[in-house]
Amino acid sequence: MRAEAAASLETGSPPVPTHVAIIMDGNGRWATKNGVSRSKGHRKGADAVKEAIHGAIDNGVSYLTLYAFSSENWNRPPDEVRDLMGLLRMYLKREIRTLSKEGVKLQVIGRRDTLSEDIQDLIKHAETETRHNTRLTLLVALSYGAREEIAEACKAIASRVAEGSLNVADISERTVEEALYTASIPHPDLIIRTSGEKRLSNFLMWQAAYAEFSFLPVLWPDFTRQSFSDAVIDFQTRDRRYGARP
Ligand code: IPE
Ligand code: IPE
Ligand code: MG
To answer: 9 alpha carbon to ligand 3 midpoint, in Å?
Structure first.
């Protein structure tokens, strides 16, 4: 039995998801609906990140992963990519102190080498500044793709075999786990996607094997801490069986 289920049986309280991951989607549609630019939609989307963080803290969640920019998002028009990178830069400059005060530890997953150098430096600084915080671990998926993550893990494992430090027969699920960006992070219990789309879009494919899903109609800029709590309440009605039979 999983730790969270065992704890809730003992206390009689419903299980709290240890790790919630969110596909923050719908900024563009929010902009169209409100007659403003896509750029403004992304700005409002960046504001909603605070709601997600407070939702996670309010609900006692330990890990929150936010899908902020996918490997495929590089294929958007250059001015939109520039806007998104600008927002990221601003967020990393302005919000880190507040996050740190709130006990948030920030960690970035994804191909950070594809980001501009100044952003890589801001990320390093933010990770260092917040590394001792323990209230909430916030993983931000940036230039992230699950296929790329798995391919990178294969490469790392193959090099260990080639140099003779690992036998092929000893490769297990654990070996793969430990080669992922999320090594040592528990798998997501709940994955929320806003905007009504019902797909993973290359997000945490290995880690999502037994996640519960919540597809919310709300567009990301309208997401609130209450939306987060509602998704948690829905999660608490799920019967997680992991393929076994009671
Ligand atoms: C999510 O909003 C933000 C990113 C993917 C970076 P979108 O920009 O995808 O919004 P829609 O899907 O076009 O409404
Ligand atoms: C997924 O949203 C990526 C992020 C939220 C960062 P997209 O809007 O890029 O996904 P698709 O294109 O609808 O699958
Ligand atoms: Mg989208």
So the answer is: 39
